[in-house]
């Protein structure tokens, strides 16, 4: 009995301190809800639109295809955000394409069976991606609505989430500056401006708001894009007799072959999507064709959906500290994961190229603005849906030069890594146990995939694949060789993903190495019985229109 009482004291003390903190921070949402949509969506612009700008060229898509995918992403992000605010955790969290799904998607794009495709390779690859995403989403639905997530929560703690999310950001280092170097002056300028806004000018206020910190990404993009436009118009990136739209391999002139990549990277007029796209566009399900289902690609996406769920659990807990009376119950977390699975299925049906999840930058935005209003986020989601019907909006975004996209992604991935490591603030500071677990997880997440990616890789075996995407062709040369090509594909692909290795190492070590509750920083979730007795908690998490009353018997997915 004495041990039981002693075990509960830290939890009570944590909850009492937490109540005091949230009381201070909840003053913002009710008074400033009008500006909340701007804060949430403009500050997270990079997370919503940058993924298709990277993926579509890798799939062989045209600028028109990219514009269509961007419009689809805007529509699905709006729909899934509304779905989550009504039927998920009900926390004011924006949903959208997740970086967690990006590496598995690239591994599927560069699967051996797609080498040598000449015609309609974009649609063919997209249909395979759709099938894999739908399978991964369906698995996540089962994980959430069967209550398995409630049991899985016992294994997920800050020491597990921190290296897993950080590894998602670190895994794209081969793309970042390699692509920036194709137009080094514009790429560096973009990177320096966004760093200056986010760090050096972060405390500067205009009209009472930290504009530079909140809008660092869109402001930096707008300024650098304008400078690139002026340089293009004045002929700085023009070379006599050379056309940026003619591939270097088709150029007879050695002079043009030397400068065509620089022209394509630096100029702002190489994309014709804005001129050719219609004013009205209506993204619809199965617009790319009937999805193609492959069990091996589907299993890769199932593992990605587990990692996405782990990432979302950290976002749920961190955001609840700012905008809710108490943390959600384990059932509410399961419900949120189930809705994210439904959202990923919708992303697969519409064809966004990646699954949908809670955008990690939500936590940063809420922490900076001290705002988190459900209605405001819902209003912003409706705006996204309306913008998706304007074809010129998607085309305008699709015309962002590649080098500017790469520079912004360098910042976004670094920020994602930092947000992941920030989860360690809930664990004991200075704990050698936690330091070793996180350090091992991060190091092995870089070293083990590197072994798989470089195993018997011939330098020029896939010259059609850019060097920064070479790590994703591991399925064709990985070290695992069994009697089944499908098993080889799954194991070589999964073990070459940084986030998978970080998750496995951290999960095993954190749950087997002895450590106290305070040292490990175990998440404290609300008890359902206690939550039902508090009207404020019910207001935060109960389903609307009293729908939840019909499902109270399903304890694993609600209050």
Automatic annotation (TrEMBL):
Principal location listed in the UniProt entry: membrane
Cell compartment(s), UniProt: Membrane
Record's bilayer topology term: Multi-pass membrane protein
Protein name: Nucleobase-ascorbate transporter 12
GO MF term list: transmembrane transporter activity
Source taxonomy: Eukaryota, Viridiplantae, Streptophyta, Embryophyta, Tracheophyta
Transmembrane segment boundaries: 39-59, 66-86, 98-117, 129-153, 159-177, 184-201, 207-231, 376-397, 403-424, 436-452, 489-509
Keywords assigned by UniProt, alphabetized: Membrane, Transmembrane, Transmembrane helix
InterPro entries: NCS2
Family: Belongs to the nucleobase:cation symporter-2 (NCS2) (TC 2.A.40) family.
